[in-house]
Amino acid sequence: MGDDRDAISSANLAYLTALHEQWLEDPETIDPTFAGLFSTLGHSLSPISTSEEGNSLRDTSSRDAALRYAYRQRGHFIADLDPLGLAQNPEPEDLNPAGANPALRAALRRAYCGTLAVEFMHIQSTEQRDWWIERFENSPDTSPAPHDFILQALTDAEGFEAFCQKRFKAMRRFGLEGGESLVVALRAILEHAATDEAASISIGMPHRGRLNVMANVLHKPFEAIFNEFRGGSFKPEDIGGSGDVKYHLGTATTIDRNGHQIRLSLLPNPSHLEAINPVVLGRIRADQDQNTNPRHHHRQRTTRDDKHLGVLVHGDAAFSGQGVVYETLMLSQLAGYRTGGTLHLIINNQIGFTTVPEDNFSGTRGTDIAKAIEAPILHVNGDDPEAVFRAATLAYEWRKAFSSDIVLDIVCYRRFGHNETDEPAFTQPTMVRAIRTRPSVRRLYADSLVQRNLSTDASIEQRWEDTQNILERAFSAAPEYRPDPSEWLDTPQNPTRLEDEPERIQPMTGVPLNRLLLAAEGLSTIPEGMNIHPRLARQITARGETIAAGKPLDWASCEALAFGTLSMDGHPVRLSGQDSRRGTFSQRHAVLIDQETGREETPLANLAPHQAPLHFWNSPLSEYAVLGFEYGYSLGNPDALVVWEAQFGDFVNGAQIILDQFVASGETKWLRTSGLVLLLPHGHEGGGPEHSSARPERILQLCAENNLRVCNISTPANYFHALRRQIARRCRKPLIVFTPKSLLRHKETVSPLDDMGPQTRFNPVLADPDYTPNATRIILCTGKVYYDLLAERRRVQNTKTALIRLEQLYPFPSRELQQELAQYPQLQEVIWCQEEPENNGAWHFVDRRIERVLTEMDLPVQRPAYVGRPGTASPATGLTQLHNWQQDNLVQTAIGGG
């Protein structure tokens, strides 16, 4: 600021005003020194007024300008934010400089250093900075607080916790004591959203205060919660599942406000507290996309959708410590993921379990990560519920005005420890002493209302007794409570989606040839007027010639036919992943780009006049948040085909938490069904330790209770049917496909159109196309290794060995495998051959299942033998010669001589 001060000091007020007006007209026309200063000050040179002084304080000196800048930048450091009064923040020197205008300094302190503070100077937009200056300096909120509204929210919040502490004293509930103002904030947001006739609010939050929010914001019956405390089932007995602890569960309700209904959903989440963040956003985007004109080009989609709002509640330690928080924030303004802004509410306990802030994050505040996306940050003292109400209102208005994220940091405390059975004094004795002598926020607020003659002790006490009586009646009725399944569903799901058809029923997923040809024409035609890359143009032309000649189609073509026909059938298609529009291996080219203008076209999105939306999105370099987002999207629109593709299969390691906690177990824990598809490129082709393996062994280990469909497919037609089966089957199950790399262009990995025509479907087991009934040895395999085995069998002209492919590994196709094995009456030997090391791949998953099939058939051979790489610590070698030797050795061992 030094140069700025010198520049301004040398100018009189008239000159400064004229220069400022010139800057407003065209910032490029004035000296950069002044331009930089005006950029920080905003559109007004007199942005503060005070009623006490009775006049407008004009910024007529460099000293005043510097003071104003200092308070906007650092006033939050000395704000009254800690209810316990333990924070010792030294005052920055530039907030109290020598010779400062005392009236201006007092006004700025009132604006920025009270129980509500704001960080906004990191925002680059002058319009957005002016928005905050206007609200904190020029037009501070002077409207009376809704005292009754706030008092009732605090009474409900504290009343619930006090009742639970009395009735369930030795049980964990992760109560909200010390942070009851969260209910004030959430109810304020709900009322504003209802006034704007929003359609839904989706909430994600951790343990702390979750039961309270369920009860007092989403109106989950008290009887249901108390029944769960007593050990009752969270679901009807006629719906299977393992269930989950009560403070992980979700709930949903519809609330009526003056005839307008708004759907509230609290999504279930595991103990990986922040993992729910992207899931919530994906859930919201699904709602928003269903309300968007499907003919709008994806780059023209509005960034605003006020009808569906996301609220994420965080713990302070988790917000600063969990990487998925940044990954989720980073999605906020990306075309394929934006939801019009998210409201982030932090329950800032000022402690992370037992870890103090000094050991919890690097930087100034735990909220600093939000500055990376230029989100404003409001800090508010949780013991000032009126300030919390104002902060929630500002947060809602910001999101409505700018369709971007905002953080509301509610600084509070935990009255008890990490949970109610914990002893926090072991590690934080000073904080615990301050908490034990401090009245609750409800008590403090009630006393202030009495002092201001806004209420009476008698009415406050009566309000408390009424709340406790309601809870007592619910407690008495809890043993007889019978839950309604809809209480745990965030959308009105069709109950049949919770019931799976018998696995032996494979629905017909073929398509009439005329519709296949219509889709094929779209993917083999260059849009009119487009100048696309010459190599790609030749590829598209060759595809058209292949279709015209009736020749078989490759993997990418059959995938495109599945996407296109589903879209024409009325089912939206969404594919996202790192470089998925082109495809990691340059195989897909779903979006064409004009080489001269940059214009984009998605040919498959323009096949028919009334087809459903079809979008391909290049994701950021994220797996955790993006997979969570797509999982949430699949929950929000079960009629859409939602696909996430890893750049390489091993990249799914970065999203293992989502795979473990949501994709594999969401149905059995929470009754949430998802049809999400994961495409994981896989195959040992000399690509080194990482990019060879999608770690199928890890995914197969998660398989139980018919929770997943796991496939390693070897023909394009079967892949086509697997994708269409996701929609054709009545139930919804996640599908994991280990997709090929070299097979994308393998001359034998092709399928004719007839294999996708009427009366065709997915085949979980593929017979040997060169069937010979006198074969004595059968090799069972899955995926790419089949083609290596086939080549070796041809080379040595072995007629005694048959190759049977397991296209689906889970649910294990026992019946279909029996049918194929029965075709070989002279069978003497069964081999399982894989290219993965023995401790990887499918071997340890299929060996006993194959054994059961052989035993049930009473065949001469009872167990399969293993042929493949020996067990290794690394999934693949990085040495090309060693890889080739290993691959040759395993296929030669499996096939044997002629």
- Considering the protein shown, what is the CATH homologous superfamily of the largest domain? Thiamin diphosphate (ThDP)-binding fold, Pyr/PP domains
Q: Determine the mean pLDDT.
A: 88
Q: How many structural domains in the coordinates? A: 4
Strand order of the main beta sheet, please?
3-9-10-8-7-4-6-5
Q: Determine the CATH topology of the largest domain.
A: Rossmann fold
Q: What would you report as the Rg, rounded to the nearest angstrom?
A: 32 Å
Quick one: CATH class of the largest domain?
Alpha Beta
Q: Which class best fits the helix and strand makeup? A: alpha/beta
Strand content: 5-15%
CATH architecture of the largest domain, by name, is 3-Layer(aba) Sandwich
- Shape field: globular
Could you list the spans in which at least 5 consecutive residues all have pLDDT below 50? Answer: 1-12, 47-59, 233-239, 294-304
Largest sheet data: 8 strands, mixed
Note the gap between the termini: 85 Å
Q: Please give the number of β-strands.
A: 24
Q: Number of DSSP helices?
A: 29
The helix content is: 25-40%
